[in-house]
Amino acid sequence: MDVAHHFKTIWRRRWRILIATVVVTLLVFTWRESRPRVYSAAALISVTPARSSTSQLESPDNVQFLAQTYGELATTRPLVSAAVTLSGLNTPVSTAMTQVSVETTTNPGFIHIAATGSTPARAQSLTDAVAKTLVKTVTDQQSASRDADLKQVTTEIGDVDTELQTLPATSPRRATLQAQYDALVQAEVDAQLRPVDPLQRLCCVVRSGGAGCPGSGGGAIRSLRRVRRTR
Questions:
Q1: Which residues, including other chains, have CB under 8 Å from residue 75's CB and lie 6 or more apart?
Q2: pTM of the model
């Protein structure tokens, strides 16, 4: 069969081919539109290890370790449960846990949080709530640890001070206790000044209408957010 005869055959059957093409196209379109729509939102959190003014910069391995540790925390049931409550979504915690995912290996030192939802608003709400809850949880945990250490040091200072007050001025133990007291006071100051690992949510909303960050303000905590339809 030569080329000319081939094209003649196609031309004679052009209506059948056209109708079949339209039917297949309509079937594919109908199937696609009948599927539940799922949207995905993403937030990027940067992890900066805490350090005092005299400490050295952390190594990339330490930064990545912190990012992975906090990333695993973001998918735990207590945190997701708190995030669902914060978001105001009427979503079972077990369902929300399947909608939340975390990635920490693509960009070392960053936590990429993603969540899905049946609407862009629901996906965005869950993502924002998880990011906010993670930042608050880490801050609260570190503050609680610092307060516990500070309370212990303060108690020890009181005990040593009481003993110092009861010792005679010529007691040979006085110098030892005084040195211990001074060391505890310095430990108390260090505990009060101990920094926490700051988590920053870098903000940029990307939508079809443009980019912006409504309501983000100029605070220290910001969020980088993206919304897209997954299917």
A1: 97, 100, 101, 102
A2: 0.63
Residue 132 domain-assigned (yes or no): yes
Residue range of the domain that includes 92 = 39-142+197-229
Place of tokens 């799922």: 38
What is the H or E stretch that residue 21 is in?
helix 14-34
Provide the number of structural domains found in the chain: 1
3-state helix, strand, coil in the chain (%, to 5): 55, 15, 25
CA distance 55 to 47: 17
CA distances from 219 to 105, 156, 201 (A): 27, 38, 10
- The answer to whether residue 220 scores a pLDDT higher than 80 is no
pLDDT tens profile 90-109: 999 999 999 999 998 767 78
9-27, pLDDT tens digit by residue?
Answer: 777 777 877 887 877 887 7
Q: Do residues 138 and 199 lie in contact, with contact meaning Cβ atoms separated by under 8 Å? A: yes
Contact 105, 65 (CB under 8 A): no
CATH code of the domain covering residue 219: 3.30.70
- Rounded CA-CA distance 114/108 in Å is 17
What is d(CA 100, CA 128) in angstroms, rounded to the nearest whole number? 11
Distances (CA, A) of 145 to 79, 138, 141, 152, 173: 18, 11, 6, 11, 32
Instruction: Let me know if residue 127 belongs to a domain.
Output: yes
Question: Quick check: is 185 in a domain?
Answer: no
- Sequence-distant (≥ 6) Cβ neighbours of residue 152 within 8 angstroms: none
